[in-house]
Amino acid sequence: MKDAAPTQSGQTIYLKDYTAPGWLVEEVHLTFRLAPEATRVLSRIRFTPNPDADQGQFFLHGEQLKLISASIDGTPVAPDISEEGLTCAVPDGAFTWEAEVEIAPAKNFALEGLYMSSGMYCTQCEAEGFRKITYYPDRPDVMSVFTVRIEGDTPVKLSNGNPVASGEGWAEWHDPWPKPAYLFALVAGDLINHPDRFTTMSGKDVELNIWVRPGDEGKCAFGMEALKKSMKWDEEVYGREYDLDIFNIVAVDDFNMGAMENKGLNIFNSSCVLASPETSTDANFERIEAIIAHEYFHNWTGNRITCRDWFQLCLKEGLTVYRDSQFTSDMRSAPVKRISDVIDLRARQFREDNGPLAHPVRPESFQEINNFYTATVYEKGAEVIGMLKRLVGDEAYSKALDLYFERHDGQACTIEDWLAVFQESTGRDLSQFKRWYSQAGTPRLHVSETWEDGTFTLHFRQETPPTPGQPDKAPQVLPIAVGLIGPNGDEVQETTLLEMTEAEQSFSFSGLGARPVPSILREFSAPVILHRDTDNAERAFLLAHDTDPYNRWEAGRTLAKQALLRMIADGAEADAGYLGALATLLADETLDPAFRALAMALPSEDDLAQTLHESGHVPDPQRIWEKRQEMRSAMAEAMPDLLANLYAAHQVPGEYQPDAGPAAARSLANSALALLSRRDGGDRARAQFAEADNMTQQLAALSCLLSIEDGQTELKAFYDQWHDDRLVMDKWFSLQVAYARPDQMAATTERLANHLDFDMKNPNRFRATFGALTMSPAGFHHASGAGYKLLADWLIKLDPLNPQTTARVCSAFQSWTRYDADRQAMMREALERMAAQPKLSPDTREMVTRILN
Ligand code: PHE
Ligand code: ZN
């Protein structure tokens, strides 16, 4: 992070080495003369010495730039240029730097910096992409006011802030809010807008636009509604108002991530904003609403208050994910959102936390920051905020946030700043809580119980296993929400919060008439793995009586998991007790259909593999797959009439609406359909496919058919209907992989990767195809090793073009040490073959190295 010591790629940088920037930027003027192969970027930057830092040597980041000219205060200079940037002799006081560079957006397939997507110019600067646009102190603690002039023949030209002037072939934008370079954005192309307006709480009128390629204008309405709801929600819940005259969103087809919060000009992966009933599923709609909210919320948590350095990434991401989850809970069903988040956390973050890629929510070192946009930083980062809020209470949380915004508006901050605000406004000592930011790994929470003379005692013990670089762990603060249920099913102790701070600690409840059943870790109040010896009778009791929907679901999930583990371990039959309890729950009309659909879903193959590994077994992916299939057949056998009734009773008549209510009904009906299809030869699914007028119904039916037969007729019909729609075609690619039989999966993936419609340069298509492979354990880990080999082949091909996406997909190998010696050897070989590529990108090299060590 030192100005004077630019990082070499492949070099590790450390949080502890942070030093403040030597120079600050007062203002910056950029002029873009756009041309696909040779765009000129002119910069005029006013530098002032930072009074709070040593100046050291003057250094500007810059990569893959052709310097045309440079001057200081009007006098030409000849800087020393390296692959990382430039150094130059500079005057003592303030000065004006001017430079002209040339870049080639049409040749930029890394999709970082200025690049082209479907003929449009666009940028992606987070984290360190601005240095591929011009020479600049590309670090988030250098904030400045940007004025941007765009010259070119595209009809639409956008940048951050407010439009100030435009004419034939040019447009000028000015952003009055100081910002770091990573929030810079520019878009130019042949775009159409979906316009709207919003009046803020203080009565300011804001122009809103969603900009898309011609042909996509019919897919903007839902995103626009989501944006307006987000703006309103942030005013009502956090008191935060929008701060420019205009807010633009642009949909881009080629994008490495989901979306980006550039000030006043959010850029979205088209898959995360474009929506229509015909082309998007209910899940797509919900995700789009959440991502629009997330990026909008960054305006305050990320943009107005940003990060001092990239080690603090969770400061903006953990908080913003937490905020968007609150939003979704308010817009839709809070329990269903919580359960879905926990499923996701366990699938992605626990896997990361319990393998070679484990790192703290605030990492202390990295080579390539792009590799740290992880489930740990985002999702565990959000869990940490949820715990903090639970510990201090809702009111204190609001007060602390008000203070945070008031004190740090316009600043680049650290986790210390964030925690100080809570310490001061609540008087609470948060030094132990801070371990959540520095200690990697998932705490194990063991619990046992005693009952004596009307007093019920819970004995807890916590431990966190070692993670890379952290052999010893200290106890963390665990907020444990607990309720007690009496033998008749009534709650005798409503939810209360136990605050565990020691390695071992007991909590008692006295004055009870009979031994209660505890409901522990309600709402999943801490991201831990709970170990508790209990029996199925008690789980079934909680499934029937728990008042906490999360724990009710968890009881059902545990029953299912135990049943599956017994089937895997000794070939037991599907457990009749579980099937009976599930049937009772499914038939309960008082329960939200979305909740019932979640209860019907079995623990994933990967979840089962994780659990087996955790308990000292070597998971066999093929056997896990077979036993899950067997369980699903048993479910279909055990309750045919109930399933048929559920299917019939939850058909949604009339025009498609993406709202939570109808989406919940569809999700329950389609979960039933998947099981029914195992017995009806696919008749219902075929009929649904033929009649469907929306993508949710069409895709669900197609999935059912693919899971029981080859579905060639429907796949072809689907292709013919949708081959011009890229986003729908991504579904066509991923579905075929996901539903291929394990022994066919690698071959299916390979065939699709050679399909005319496959384009590895498009990250969505690459992920649709190869992501589906890596997320299907039985196919990816097939004993032949074909899955590993194919993935490595294609990662090696993609790496020279797009290192960021290569490195992300490469994380599929992270759980390699869980498996048997043969599979380990084959995965190691795949990883070593990648490592042996002499020109492997630093991004992918860092991932491969961390996974192997
Ligand atoms: N900051 C973006 C978000 O979470 C994610 C992102 C990171 C996008 C890096 C692009 C590149 O909202
Ligand atoms: Zn974010």
TrEMBL record:
Gene3D superfamilies: 2.60.40.1840, 3.30.2010.30, Neutral Protease Domain 2, Peptidase M1, alanyl aminopeptidase, C-terminal domain, tricorn interacting facor f3 domain. Keywords: Aminopeptidase, Hydrolase, Metal-binding, Metalloprotease, Protease, Zinc. Residues 537-853 form the Peptidase M1 alanyl aminopeptidase C-terminal domain. Its cofactor is Zn(2+). Residues 222-436 form the Peptidase M1 membrane alanine aminopeptidase domain. Residues 119-183 form the Aminopeptidase N-like N-terminal domain. InterPro entries: Aminopeptidase_N-like_N, Aminopeptidase_N-like_N_sf, PepN_Ig-like_sf, Peptidase_M1, Peptidase_M1_dom, Peptidase_M1_pepN, Peptidase_M1_pepN_C, Peptidase_M1_pepN_C_sf. It catalyses: Release of an N-terminal amino acid, Xaa-|-Yaa- from a peptide, amide or arylamide. Xaa is preferably Ala, but may be most amino acids including Pro (slow action). When a terminal hydrophobic residue is followed by a prolyl residue, the two may be released as an intact Xaa-Pro dipeptide. CDD domains: M1_APN (cd09600). GO terms for biological process: proteolysis. Residues 441-532 form the Peptidase M1 alanyl aminopeptidase Ig-like fold domain. Its EC number is 3.4.11.2. GO terms for molecular function: alanyl aminopeptidase activity; metallopeptidase activity; zinc ion binding. Belongs to the peptidase M1 family. NCBIfam families: pepN_proteo (TIGR02414). This is Aminopeptidase N. It comes from Pseudooceanicola spongiae.
